[in-house]
């Protein structure tokens, strides 16, 4: 008796799951489409019917990882304070990394040179900036010395926060001995309190 015939979407999800395992084991450059097809239990022509190139396959997987990272934000409870709002988002990001090493590696620790993949990576980064801009927009007041419209300031601060998050996420990849709670605390200190408040000068 033959098994259930998969729909196109189900087969695509199976391919992405297999590709994730292959890319995780071999890295982008060393992974081959035939290897992915074998892992997915399909023929190479069927794989190419879904994804015309290795770059397109990797880009599809990367996009699904970005979706997964950002999806958790919608379920976060509201916070009574702006600091709590920011800390909850930072904690969610690093908790996702700790339980999703593949996505952590793809988004923060790998930079494939293929332009198609790079474009997907840029779109993911832009989506992250937009989400962080929304977070800064929920802060009722910002004591800024810069004379900027609030929406422009929110966007600039979000871009800076994203860069800091990216940098710490990349650093943590090589420093796994540091507990996640301490990484969250360090990141929140930097983003919320700022370097100026962290530096104690002799009086």
Automatic annotation (TrEMBL):
Keywords: DNA-binding, Transcription, Transcription regulation. InterPro entries: Homeodomain-like_sf, HTH-type_TetR-like_transc_reg, HTH_TetR, Tet_transcr_reg_TetR-rel_C_sf. This is TetR family transcriptional regulator. Gene3D superfamilies: Tetracycline Repressor, domain 2 (1.10.357.10). Residues 9-69 form the HTH tetR-type domain. Residues 32-51 bind DNA. Pfam families: TetR_N. GO terms for biological process: negative regulation of DNA-templated transcription. GO terms for molecular function: DNA-binding transcription factor activity; transcription cis-regulatory region binding. It comes from the Bacteria. SUPFAM superfamilies: Homeodomain-like (SSF46689), Tetracyclin repressor-like, C-terminal domain (SSF48498).
